[in-house]
Amino acid sequence: MVRRTIHVVNLDPAAEHFDYQPLADIRELIHLDDAMDDDSLRFGPNGGLVFCMEYLAQNFDWLHEQLDEVEDDYILFDCPGQIELYTHIPVMKQLAETLQKWDFRLCGVFLVDSQFMIEASKFVSGILTALSTMVNLELPHVNVMTKIDLLSKKAKKNLDRYLEPELPMLLSEEFDDSKFNHKFKKLNSAMATMIDDYSLVKFLPLDISDEDSINDVLLQIDNAIQYGEDLEPREIRDELLEEEESNCDSGFG
Asked: For a tag site, which of 31, 55, 161, 212 has the least CB within 10 Å?
């Protein structure tokens, strides 16, 4: 495994517990229960989550204080999964812009459950959601298909169709004339052709039981943020030596 010091910042106000100590935790600023239990707000889970994130945006000074002593470290910002925050509500874009003003190099990592994505129509829906997020955040972006290790053997055999997809063909196989009308099929075909022609979205598979899979994703993220360019040659050498020793110890060569 890669021996790299990584700090985690929890930005999910609905998170329940961690097996590690976050560098910063939004729940110390505001918790989802605060928004849902307040008699003057009376939010449900979705509205409460949006309120918490907008409250964070109004209090970025708190986040800056939590990050003030961090220098040249690798930080993972663990964000909530509510898709509205990334597609049409501006709060996550405001967060990204603020972090960049603080000289952070950012890469958006969009995670989609592979068990949701192995049907053609759902796959197109996931692609359009990822595309909307990419356009809204305006960041270097890596799209990851997660939980590959949980797929059935049959699903894994079909996985390549979605990692290197020919979308018009996939949709033509799923949408037969007996179930879908002509306009619906034509709309989906047009969207698939646009995505296919411009190679707008690609997904990387992530299998947490496969070290090569993890390293492939990490390499893409490192390239996106130009990780290592500011390291001194000795620091780079030490990281490579540590990685080589770890691979030898774990049986990878």
From this structure: 212
